[in-house]
Amino acid sequence: MNIRKGRHVVHMMHVHLVFVTKYRRKVFESEQLDFLKGIFESVCKDFECELTEYNGEDNHVHLLVNYPPKVQVSKLVNSLKGVSSRRLAQKYGRLHQWFYKGVLWSPSYFAGSVGGAPISVLKQYIEQQNRPE
Q1: Total structural domains in the chain?
Q2: Is 98 contained in some domain?
Q3: Residues 6 or more apart whose Cβ sits within 8 Å of residue 47
Q4: pLDDT digits over 54-74, tens only?
Q5: What is the three-class DSSP state of 117?
Q6: Domain holding 55: CATH number?
Q7: 104 Rama sector, left if φ>0, alpha if ψ -120 to 50, beta otherwise
């Protein structure tokens, strides 16, 4: 069990996030997915979160994030999507052709609190996502 401790709290909170590209366009190859992982880890660190598991396909990504109670999931998501979109555009300018008016991600997202299913089952599900060649 990964129980975390803060100054006045002991917690173990996980959220399963799914971000989809605008119009579900097939944008990512393995190289971009690897680059995104580093960005997501960095943003999570800034929020005192931990990216527990990550994977994706050509048009979406899955993240499993361990986060403290003080973090608002919506603010974390906004930062994850905003920073990743900007950095991808900077590094892979050619991807910008897939962005719609400079937007990579669909404005919607999935966020599911993890508690019903064991973390190991969710990790296995995310690990089994098919990566593009």
Answers
A1: 1
A2: yes
A3: 67, 71, 75, 76, 79
A4: 999 999 999 999 999 999 999
A5: coil
A6: 3.30.70.1290
A7: alpha
